[in-house]
Amino acid sequence: MAIDDKPVGVAVLGLGNVGSEVVRMIEHSAEDLAARIGAPLKLRGIGVRRVAPDRGVPVELLTDDIDALVSREDVDIVVELMGPVEPSRKAILSALEQGKSVVTANKALLAQSAGELAQAAENSRADLYFEAAVAGAIPVIRPLTQSLAGDTVLRVAGIVNGTTNYILSAMNDTGTDYASALADASALGYAEADPTADVEGYDAAAKAAILASIAFHTRVTADDVYREGITKVTAEDFESAKALGCTIKLLAICERIATDEGQQRVSARVYPALVPLDHPLAAVNGAFNAVVVEAEAAGRLMFYGQGAGGAPTASAVMGDLVMAARNRVQGGRGPRDSKYAKLPISPIGFIPTRYYVSLYVADRPGVLSSVAAEFAKREVSIAEVRQEGVVNDGGERVGARIAVLTHRATDAALSDTIAALEDLDVVASVASVLRMEGSEE
Ligand code: NAP
User: Fold this and answer.
1) Which residues are catalytic?
2) pLDDT-derived band of residue 1, with 50, 70 and 90 as boundaries?
3) Whose alpha carbon is nearest atom 25 of ligand 1?
4) How far is 350 from 352, CA to CA, in rounded Å?
5) Which atom of ligand 1 is found nearest the CA of 316?
6) What residue ranges define each of the domains in the chain, with the CATH number in brackets?
7) 310-319, pLDDT tens digit by residue?
């Protein structure tokens, strides 16, 4: 293929973990990239806050005037890698309105404003790509938008946050508690100084919104995603998980649900769940990510790899950049935003899953049947139950613990059951309630 003389102008906004690696790859692989695209990429400038000569790139490329860089006539593609919702949103909208293509890794922005950005891209017929926004290096956006475009996606479930997976893996492997595992993750650089977005599930919820939107051709925002984080998961929960042949993972689940009336709905949710050890997601440990997609004709597909880090994330950004640049050179554009299905979002109360419930109870006859009766009244069917004595430091028996594993029940039925159990005289406390995902019953 002949290579055009006219370069494709690129502005990179952000020179942090990901941006610096993208800049390095643009420079380092220039010849190969030109051959793959059909024209050379030309880095026109890099947007940062701190313009200084010690940043590892020629200082004349740096600018803190993002608006001016985006508006340069010789910039064809804007690669946004700054992070905060603002000024990223403004910069991306400005680029798209001027007909420039955009590549971004900004999941928080996409989970909030994807509709607005997609409309701007549509108006100017520009490309908007965001493979790196979900699961770092792992190709999952493109398989969903392109490879599976002719199939019907039923479910997308994944481990999409490396920090929480690192913490939960450590708790599983060492028996340590949540606070110690978080402290270790912070010391090793796997958790940020403020870990809230990760441990409370906000990051995973943003990714779930993006995945659900694409998988089900329906606009889903972060506010539509039911979310629970991992801060309440205890070492005792892991002991229970092991006894059941499971581990605990923070899952992002996007599902097509059919109501009793046959209406299709979308469920998007993030919570820690028991996962059977023979399920593929149980083997995803440390900071790795994985996404399992189930589609009507394709069956089950699994995507696994590095979900974060400068170089892995830059790989996904570079893939998008090459696609956008090829479209510039050859004409045409990538797949348009597809939200035709407009499926309603299902409230969490309607979602059926299996549950594990652990209770501290009085140690006297009839307690087990009182507890079982509360489940039965709400048609929550019990699959397994275990009872064991609880002894104090002196070895004296002071109560009992009942652990119940249910068959599938709706969240609403289970919540009612828990409320009723808490009101029973014989129940001292409900120690934990965990969903179980990935088991067949
Ligand atoms: P980072 O290391 O914090 O770097 C952010 C860069 O953006 C810095 O160079 C910073 O400039 C620049 N910046 C921030 N606010 C700015 C502003 N108002 N004006 C101009 N420049 C500004 O972030 P990162 O880890 O590379 O992440 C970048 C994006 O990729 C984020 O959207 C993130 O969610 C996404 N992402 C990251 C990863 C990962 O593993 N790191 C994985 C997937 C997705 P200064 O250097 O001058 O401060």
Assistant:
1) 207
2) low
3) 17
4) 6
5) 43
6) 8-136+310-330 (3.40.50.720), 141-306 (3.30.360.10), 349-436 (3.30.70.260)
7) 999 999 999 9
Band of residue 440 on the pLDDT scale cut at 50, 70, 90: low
Residue carrying structure tokens 């009244």: 377
Q: Are 208 and 161 a contacting pair, CB within 8 Å?
A: no
Dist CA 195 CA 185 (whole Å): 10
**Ligand 1 touching residue 45 (CB < 6 A):** no
CA distances, 166 to each of 173, 285, 307, 391 (Å): 11, 7, 12, 33
Indicate the top mutation candidate among 12, 18, 190 to test ligand 1's pocket, ranked by most ligand atoms within 8 A of CB. 18
DSSP for 176-195, please give it.
--HHHHHHHHHHTTSS-SS-
Residue 20 CB–ligand 1 contact under 6 Å: no
Task: Please give the number of the atom of ligand 1 that sits closest to the Cα of 19.
Answer: 26
Q: Where are the alpha helices (DSSP H) in 80-177?
A: 85-97, 107-124, 141-142, 162-174
Tell whether ligand 1 has an atom less than 6 A from the beta carbon of residue 106. yes
Distances (CA, A) of 274 to 52, 240, 356, 383: 49, 10, 8, 15
Convert the pLDDT of each residue in 145-184 to its tens digit.
999 999 999 999 999 999 999 999 999 999 999 999 999 9
User: Mutation test of ligand 1: which of 25, 50, 141, 313 has the most ligand atoms closer than 8 Å to its C-beta?
Assistant: 313
Per-residue pLDDT tens over the stretch 311-370: 999 999 999 999 999 999 999 899 889 999 999 999 999 999 999 999 999 998 999 999
Q: Is 268 helix (H, G, I), strand (E, B) or coil?
A: strand
Edge-to-edge strands, sheet with 128-129: 62-63, 41-47, 8-13, 77-80, 101-104, 128-129
